[in-house]
Amino acid sequence: MIVGTGVDIVEVARIKRLLEKHSPRFEEKIFTADEILYCRSRAEPGIHFAARFAVKEAVMKCLGTGMDQGIAFRDIEVTNEKTGKPAIKMHGKGKDIFTRLKLETIHISISHDKNYAIAQAIAEA
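and the corresponding structure tokens:
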């Protein structure tokens, strides 16, 4: 059963500006160490940071929490399965909400081009 959906779109240039102006503090506040390593390993890190930022926003929306219930960006981690398919790993308050909602999984889809990154999240119980 679908419990919630969320979608978010991010302007890549906005995230690149934040990275240039406020990193490493910005990176460490928003992303896990593994996410930072992954994004930095890519040819265009800004696009991948923007995509993961969009996922985090979409997941908060599909949980129905936004940031109002104490969930932090780092509570939502974007990983990749061996096939390359993106997946979500929940931590801290995010994991608590995931458990309280009795979710089985959160499906995500990510797309990006040089200007925008978009993500969709669907919470399933």
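(Above: one complete record from the training split.) The domain at 2-124 is CATH 3.90.470.20 (Ribosomal Protein L22; Chain A).
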